[in-house]
Amino acid sequence: MNNQTKIRIRGVTFSYNGKPVLKEVSADISENKITAIIGPSGQGKSTLLSVINRLWENVPGASLQGSIEIFFDGRFKDIYAAGSDPAVLRRKVGLIFQSPNPLPMSIEGNVAFPLRLMGVRNRELIRSKVREALGQAFLWDEVKDRLGDDGRSLSGGQQQRLCIARALVLDPEILLLDEPTSSLDPTACEMIEELLSCLKNSCTLVMVSHYQEQVARISDETYQLADGHLSPA
Ligand code: ADP
């Protein structure tokens, strides 16, 4: 069994306006596993995800100490090293939010968007990548005859799978998921859980979840965040 560490978090202390939210947090997140982060609201779970893809950096008054290294291209790389480009990092580390956030454009346009942003112009390539990503997200069969419809016309569960497809189109190595099923009904939730269990074959998944049953069902490793400290649960 593969027990390679994918994300190495060391001594991370993170503060908003001088007030620490994460205190000396360290963990090794395993590759091709689902790692769940649990804990009460307001403990810094979303903040921890934002630290892994540098999404917090534009927040005024926020500061970070410690290091995050990710195993990319055969070696650990410090994601905060000078010269390390956050845009490149975010192509490899996708983020899925609690509420699906499709862009105001077609289903196909939503999934193609990150490719277009990167400057991909080859229409055939875009079409095949979109198809592949929608397939990986268990959505292709449901939308293949309506790719031109507005992404926002889909059901909540379909919208969340659309957002997952939009992340997958860039072939990410890591997916960060911030309570990805909390806005969904039980059937949609079950489908996303099945999807995540499949995706760990190709990705490392780090998921914040409030649902103990969900964590018991799908997570391989679980950490609890409380009072700024992260510990195995
Ligand atoms: P959780 O995901 O566990 O609910 P968060 O990471 O969202 O926790 O928030 C942790 C703490 O940091 C909370 O007290 C929250 O109010 C605070 N916080 C989150 N985002 C910001 C921000 N942009 N500016 C200031 N404080 C923030």
User: What fraction, in percent, of the residue positions are helical?
Assistant: 25-40%
Overall strand count? 10
* Distinct small molecules: adenosine-5'-diphosphate
* Binned strand content: 25-35%
Coarse morphology: globular
Q: Kindly state the mean pLDDT as a whole number?
A: 96
**Uncertain spans:** none
Element-by-element helix/strand order? EEEHEEHEHHHHEHEHEE
Based on CA atoms alone, the radius of gyration comes out at 18 Å
Report on the biggest sheet: 6 strands, mixed
* Total helical elements: 8
Which structural category fits the helices and strands? alpha/beta
In whole angstroms, the N-to-C terminal distance is 21 Å
In short:
By secondary structure, the protein is of the alpha/beta class. The protein has helices at 45-52, 86-92, 107-117, 123-136, 140-143, 156-168, 186-199, 212-218, and strands at 5-16, 19-30, 34-38, 62-72, 75-78, 93-96, 174-178, 204-208, 221-226, 229-232.
